[in-house]
Design brief:
Strand content: under 5%
Structural class: mainly alpha
Number of strands: 0
Oligomer: single chain
CATH class of one domain: Mainly Alpha
Helix content: 40-55%
Shape: flat
CATH topology of one domain: 434 Repressor (Amino-terminal Domain)
Radius of gyration: 34 Å
C-alpha cells in the first residue's frame, strides 16, 4: 500500500518532502564537539582617553558646596534652583565658564533657608503622611487623588498609599513635594502666603 493513497496526506504534493522508512540498524553516537576559543587579539593601538577634572570657577565650587551642605540629589537641587538638570550639570562639572548671578543668588538663599529651617522642616514632616497630605490638599484646594497626583507629579496609587500611611517619602522628596505644593499654591491663589 502506498502512503500517498491513504487519504491522510499526499506526499507527492510537497516536492521537498520524502518519506524515509525506519532503519533497523543501531544509531551511531555523534562525537561531542568542544567549542574552540578564538585567539586573543592584541589591544588596539592608539591614545588612551585622558580623564581629567575640570577646574571649577569660584561660583561653580560654591554651588557644588551648597548642594553638598544641603544634602540633596542633583535632580532635587535643580528643581529647587528652578533650572533643568542639564544646566545644573554644566555648572557643577565645569562645562560652562560661570554660573549665572540669579542661580547663585537662589542657591545662597536656599542654603540660608536650609540652615535656619532644618529643624522646622524636620518637625513639619514628623507626622503621619496622611496629615501632610491633608495639608497639601488644603493648600491646593483639591481632595481628588487624580488631581493631587497630577499636580505634584506622582501616581494616584502613591497618593492612595500615602493616605493610608503605608509609606512615606524620604525627607528630600518630602521637601521637594512641599516646594512644588508651595509654588503651585502661590500660582493658584496669589493672595495666599506660605
Amino acid at each position: 500500500m502506498d502512503l500517498g493513497d491513504t487519504g491522510v496526506f499526499n506526499i507527492d504534493a510537497v516536492p521537498f518532502m520524502a518519506f524515509i522508512p525506519p532503519s533497523n540498524e543501531p544509531e551511531e553516537e555523534l562525537p561531542v564537539r568542544k567549542p574552540q576559543r578564538a585567539p586573543a587579539r592584541a589591544p588596539a593601538q592608539g591614545r588612551r582617553k585622558v580623564v581629567s577634572k575640570a577646574v571649577l570657577s569660584e561660583d561653580q565650587a560654591e554651588l557644588v558646596s551648597i548642594g553638598e551642605q544641603m544634602g540633596v540629589r542633583n535632580q532635587d537641587f535643580a528643581v529647587l534652583l528652578g533650572i533643568g538638570l542639564p544646566r545644573l550639570s554644566s555648572y557643577i562639572y565645569g562645562r560652562t565658564a560661570s554660573v549665572s548671578k540669579d542661580v547663585m543668588t537662589k542657591a545662597r538663599q536656599l542654603l540660608e533657608e536650609h540652615k535656619t529651617s532644618n529643624s522646622v522642616r524636620a518637625s513639619k514632616f514628623d507626622k503621619p503622611m496622611s496629615e501632610i497630605l491633608k495639608d497639601w490638599e488644603e493648600r491646593l484646594g483639591t481632595t481628588e487623588n487624580i488631581g493631587l497626583a497630577s499636580l505634584i507629579g506622582v501616581t494616584t496609587m502613591t497618593i492612595h498609599r500615602w493616605k493610608k500611611n503605608e509609606n512615606k517619602p524620604d525627607p528630600t522628596a518630602l521637601t521637594r513635594y512641599d516646594h512644588i505644593v508651595s509654588t503651585l499654591a502661590a500660582r493658584l491663589n496669589p493672595a495666599m502666603k506660605n
